[in-house]
Amino acid sequence: MDLKKVIQDKLDTIKSLRIKLHENAELSYQEFKTQKIIMDFLNELNIPAVKMAETGVVGVLNEGKSCIGIRADMDALPVNGVSHACGHDYHMAVALGTALVLKELGFEKCVKFVFQPAEEAEGGALPMINEGVLENPTVKYMIGYHVWPGLPVGKIEVGKGASMASVDDFNITFKGIGGHAAMPHICKNPIFPAMDLIQAITMKSRIETDPLNSHVITFSSFNAGTTNNVIPAEAVVKGTARTFDNKLRKKIHEDIVAQAKLSAEKYGCEAVVDYIVQYPPVISDDALTEEFIEVSNKTLGSENVLPLIKTFGAEDFAFFAERVPSVHFRLGISNGIKGNHPLHSPYFDVDDDAIFYGIYTVASFVLHLADRV
Q: For 3-164+281-372, which CATH superfamily applies?
């Protein structure tokens, strides 16, 4: 059977399913209705499905010792009430559409469909991994994707190596001795070590890091005191650190922790550091990505397979890519009118024709990998 024709024949079904997912948008770890919609659809296809990580779903097409994994995130955002302002309804529709099409084609190899909760919050990828999502059967390759505003429908962006950054946040509390602003000599003003930290880390990142090794350290919040004549007892600095390099990520973490303590000691204060390690960078496997590009050039036309520009946005697909050779690509959603508003915008929208190209791209690569599982 012709893959494009099968997708076209089933496209109305998938578009209707996407609308249903959109109308039942739910926040992270609240995706119970979404979970039921997915499980009901997979059950209709006679694809066994189980719950995982509270509200996630894993469906396995065919038996096998190893398989190809396809991941789609499930959760929505608190935008316009609750809505899929990041396009996760389209991600799920592409994965479910791929399942439907492979079933229709009589595909006999093993494919695992991973519907992951909570990408927008603390992340559901790691809990699913810890519960064994990459095992029984063993996931040999993983495919991920994200709808991309401004990229025309029918085109994708993909590249080897890092495409999205790591993300770590920090909250640092400097504790001093508060008192009267007219008597600073008997106080320990925590504002000074807070300022010292910001200046020192900003300078270190400029003079100790290769300028070609992109990274961002942003101090985004500084709170201390509430009035003119009182030296506060505490100052709190918050921020985020992002990079595409795990070694640099580790160095930034160590530098911030060490410098906070040095700055505090310098001014006779104490530093309490809460450094929240979150997602690693999304790194696509070089060899697998080269194959993906080659297949996509034939499927979509080389003029429609574009290199990507890295973004400091983050995505917990990174945890899958750390453990399994993976490829993560961007799916075009713009028709010039729809699909141009940024992710997370209250005006975010998508040209539904993107669903066809998402399924066509993913299914074509699954067929290419079939002999390896």
A: Zn peptidases (3.40.630.10)
